[in-house]
Amino acid sequence: MDNNTLHADVVVIGFGKGGKIAAATLGRLGRRVVLIERSDQMYGGTCPNVGCVPTKALVHHSGNRRPDDSPQEWFEHAVGQVQALTSLFRAGNYDALNGADTITVITGAAAFVDSHTVAVGKGADRITVTAETILINTGSAPVIAGIPGLADSSRLVTNVDLIKNTTLPGRLAVIGGGYLGIEFASIYHRFGSRVTVFETSARILGREDDDVAAAAEQILTDEGVDIVPGSTVLEVRDGANETTVVYEKNGRQHTLVVDAVLAATGRAPVTDGLDLEKAGIRTTPRGAIEVDEYLRTSQPHVFALGDVNGGPQFTYISLDDSRIVLDQLTGEGKRTTTDRVAVPATLFMTPPLATIGLTEKQARAAGHRITLARQNVADIVAMPRAYIVEETRGLMKFVIDADTDQILGAALLSVDAQELINTVALAMRHGITASELRDSIYTHPSSTEAFNDVIGAVIHTDDPLDV
Ligand SMILES: Cc1cc2nc3c(=O)[nH]c(=O)nc-3n(C[C@H](O)[C@H](O)[C@H](O)COP(=O)(O)OP(=O)(O)OC[C@H]3O[C@@H](n4cnc5c(N)ncnc54)[C@H](O)[C@@H]3O)c2cc1C
Ligand SMILES: NC(=O)c1ccc[n+]([C@@H]2O[C@H](COP(=O)([O-])OP(=O)(O)OC[C@H]3O[C@@H](n4cnc5c(N)ncnc54)[C@H](O)[C@@H]3O)[C@@H](O)[C@H]2O)c1
Questions:
Q1: Does residue 59 line the site of ligand 1, with CB under 6 A?
Q2: CATH number of residue 405's parent domain
Q3: What residues contact residue 31 under an 8 Å CB cut-off, 6+ apart?
Q4: pLDDT tens column, 254-295
């Protein structure tokens, strides 16, 4: 074969979490793997380059700014630190794969030629790769809402622009009060931007119970973030030096002048340019690649992993997708997406909001008789750590099945919540009851020992005997 025609056992399209883990594992097992990534700035995918890692590093740096530090200088320094970190991770990701004898990394956008062949590049530079198995791991990209003037605005920014630009926007409008919008609102406010969040729903964080979303909203508004729930952005109008956001709230029209507008209204699977139709690979009405519970597409030798398959958009889900695919390719072929129990999530505002399982609303709708336990962090006597680290804001809430004492769900808006939720997840997965979690021995002073108090702090029960 010439240099422009390769044959591999496995081709991976996209250097995301699931794809790279699958590539590394298969390479170690002696399979010939070709991984194709369209951008030399994206080795390792979204998470280490423009997603989880830089945003959480910015949470860290924004929290360290002292009142007398110049916002612009502090921000520029922070972006520099974050870029150094992401460069390091990017290089590490590239070397880890391309350094292996069995793995070749090609940089360029891949497209299907037929169901066993993908091509990269054009003309004399075109490389064609055929393979028995193909993994698609092309991730997701921001949805730009169809608001007049938004897509063409010179001040429209995405997570990628914000993370890389060293100029701190003086006034930032965030459209969307979900994970991305609230994390950026919290971060940029703490760096010194004047931040306004526009959310169409009656509340930000609409998936959470009202008491939890209200507590998160209160923390943000107390800090000085402006939140405009129940609003509709009608137009984004560029001026010479600034942009005007025109919006409606309670039937009245208002304007806000800003320096940047962040689109945070969701992310859609990336399938553009893949020429899926040439391979006979179907997509869903929402634009995701259609997969079964083993992540096989409509072509059984082609798998789709991570955000592109329309599943929950988290790095650890992409990682778990790779376990399912590897089990198909090298294991017993039993693992499926339906095996997942109690998948936690954390929104990294300050303090973080970590959630798992059913909300109170969902538990009631599902017909459970429930016991509710909830305490404000400031009132949790067993958790002096909150006072030690001077972060006593937030609350912890547990939704417990009154009949079985199993934990149905939890929402922890608290310092260290991103760690605490993993203990709750483990308990839920392994059938550890709420009482057992409450009565366990935890180190002191730690945040986990809050469970000793909170799970006993019953505020409501559906059990008639207890009323
Ligand atoms: C700002 C932000 C913060 C986030 N924070 C968190 C967090 O804290 N925790 C968490 O769990 N999740 C977080 N997420 C979500 C998480 O980043 C994603 O769910 C995860 O990265 C998806 O990984 P993936 O494997 O699907 O693919 P990705 O990591 O998105 O990788 C896909 C890769 O495919 C490449 N590609 C696309 N098309 C082609 C093509 N035709 N040819 C070749 N290559 C192609 C892309 O360039 C990209 O590198 C965050 C997301 C964002 C945007
Ligand atoms: N910490 C994390 O794990 C993390 C952080 C960032 C992003 N993510 C992932 O990325 C995904 C995408 O994040 P996201 O925040 O963009 O999406 P999202 O779905 O979480 O939130 C979008 C929000 O925008 C609102 N909205 C939609 N259209 C609107 C409009 N025209 N005007 C105003 N508001 C509007 C929705 O009601 C919703 O509240 C998340 O769902 C999450 O899976 C994860």
A1: no
A2: 3.30.390.30
A3: 9, 10, 102
A4: 999 999 999 999 999 999 999 999 999 999 999 999 999 999
254 and 294, same structural domain? no
Q: Which residues contact 222 (CB under 8 A, 6 or more apart)?
A: none
Residues 257 and 272 placed together within one structural domain of the fold: no
Give the pLDDT score at 466: 43
17 lines ligand 1 (CB under 6 A): yes
In a shared domain, residues 249 and 174: yes
* 59 belongs to a structural domain: yes
Tell me how far the alpha carbon of residue 99 lies from the centroid of ligand 2, in angstroms: 37
pTM: 0.97
Decide whether any atom of ligand 2 lies within 6 Å of the 352 Cβ. no
Which of 306, 323, 339 is where one domain is finished?
339
- Ligand 1, residue 318: give the atom nearest the CA: 25
CA of 47 to the centre of ligand 1 (A): 6
Q: What is the CATH number of the domain that holds 123?
A: 3.50.50.60
Q: Which domain holds residue 215?
A: 156-265
Q: How far is the CA of 307 from the centre of ligand 1 (A)?
A: 7
60 is catalytic: no
d(CA 198, CA 209) in angstroms, rounded, equals 20
Residue 297's pLDDT is what? 98
Residue 436 in any domain: the answer is yes
pLDDT at 465: 45
Is the CB of 269 within 6 Å of ligand 1? no
Classify residue 149: in a domain, yes or no: no
Residue of 189, 368, 430, 444 marked catalytic? 444
For the stretch 340-344, contacts whose Cβ atoms lie closer than 8 Å and that sit 24 or more positions apart, written own/partner, are: 341/428, 341/429, 342/424, 342/425, 342/428, 342/429, 343/312, 343/314, 343/316, 343/317, 343/425, 344/421, 344/422, 344/424, 344/425
Q: Give me ligand 2 centre to Cα 377, in Å.
A: 26
* CB 134 near ligand 1, within 6 Å: no
Give me the mean pLDDT over the 404-433 stretch: 98
Q: State mean pLDDT over 337-352.
A: 97
Q: State the total domains in the chain.
A: 3
ipTM of model = 0.98
Shared domain check, 135 and 48 = yes
Atom number in ligand 1 closest to CA 14: 34
